[in-house]
Amino acid sequence: MSTPTDPWVPFWRSGRMGGESLLFIEPAPGKPATASLLMTPRGAVSLQSATGEVEYVEHVDYTLDRVSGLLTRTPGSRLPATTIAELHPSIDQEGSGFMHVRGDPTRFLMVSEGDTFHRRQATASYSFDRVQWTGYAPHVADATLRSTLERLHRGDALTVCLVGDSISEGYNASGFIGVPPYQPAYGELVASGLEQVYESQVTLRNLASAGWTSDDGRCVVDAVTAAEPHLVVVAFGMNDAGYAEPAEYAVNIRSIVEETRRGVPGVEFILVSSMLPNPEWHYPQPQRFAGYRRALADLCGPGVALADLTTLWTDLLVRKSLYDLTGNGINHPNDFGHRLYAQTILSLLTE
Fold it and tell me: Could you tell me if residue 6 is inside a domain?
């Protein structure tokens, strides 16, 4: 099971965790590397490499405490292990000086836009009791996305525009970087999920671009309106967090919504609050993400719904390491993270 059969089905609805990602970290020299499951598993657990090429064996490659969900790498295991020193190199591997630890410009973070983290990660698939999950669980937005849902229920064609930054462009999904299991990024997963559920033709226009902020989003409105979309997914915040206060961010997002509506009357929106970055990275200001989330919530109403990845990520990090979820070490999701993006958005549009 290199990729879940139905990657658009949320774990909080299904009671099935498919491909939950893990990175085994050695907490100290000589200590075994560990990682934690999000849920207490019920029944068998399947543990594979993130590429789907290796199947790991309990008691041979790892042990599992079924009460705590803690996985421990055994001596001689085939599971990759990563040390704290590797995650915090003393040399700037990127050569930019931009990826240093907050408060210490001489200490850096392991960063890679390729498959460095993907090759080090494993995935776990298992069943669990759904009542365990008490975190964020979005519901169908039938009160706000009425027009979109009516089109889908009729089986009409749907055009979706996606505007955002590198996360939305697809960075660090295995399909984007061209490595097994070649999973598409979240935008494509949303489109294919809607087609699977409603048997409608869904056209995705992905206008997202790496490095963009909500300021750039205002500049792409003409391209959005030219596509004549029925639904626009707006996903900014990660790059804004280095310089923009929530009030400035809110002005930009409101402008995107209002200007698009002038060009395409009746269009509806899903506003995505961003995943969280590595808190050790000096560039983003972590406290801004909650402010951005509140700003987006304040913009919601008829025709505008919130996909709250900020709250979901906060809830996940109660039990998970940020390195379980990262695709590049600082600010991109891995395959599991892209599925979480897709599942959150699809939860607003599907039962």
Answer: no
pLDDT tens digit string along 197-234?
Answer: 999 999 999 999 999 999 999 999 999 999 999 999 99
The answer to whether residue 310 sits within a structural domain is yes
CATH number for the domain spanning 197: value is 3.40.50.1110
pLDDT digits (tens, 9 = 90+) for 313-349: 999 999 999 999 999 999 999 999 999 999 999 999 9
Domain boundary among 132, 154, 175: 132
Pairing of strands 100-101, 104-108: antiparallel
172: exposed, middle or buried (Cβ count in 10 Å: 0-12, 13-18, 19+): buried
Average pLDDT, the chain: 96
pLDDT for the residue 305? 98
Say how many domains are in the chain: 2
Quick one: 308 and 258 in the same domain? yes
Number of neighbouring beta carbons within 10 Å of residue 179: 17
| 3 state DSSP class of 242 | helix
Give the H or E element holding residue 22.
strand 16-23
Give the domain range for residue 343. 146-347
Measure the CA–CA gap between 178 and 115, rounded to whole angstroms: 9
> Which burial class, exposed, middle or buried, applies to 218 when counting CB atoms under 10 A from its CB (0-12, 13-18, 19+)?
middle
- What lies within 8 Å, CB to CB, of 331 at 6+ separation is 166, 167, 238, 275, 277, 278, 281, 284
Low-confidence stretches of the chain (pLDDT beneath 50) = 1-5
Q: Do 173 and 297 fall into the same domain? A: yes
Listed residues 79, 99, 132: the one ending a domain: 132
Same domain, 19 and 94: yes
Q: Which residue has the tokens 């965790």?
A: 17
End-to-end CA separation in angstroms for the chain: 25
Q: How do residues 287-322 score in pLDDT, each as one tens digit?
A: 999 999 999 999 999 999 999 999 999 999 999 999
Asked if residue 139 is part of any domain, the answer here is no
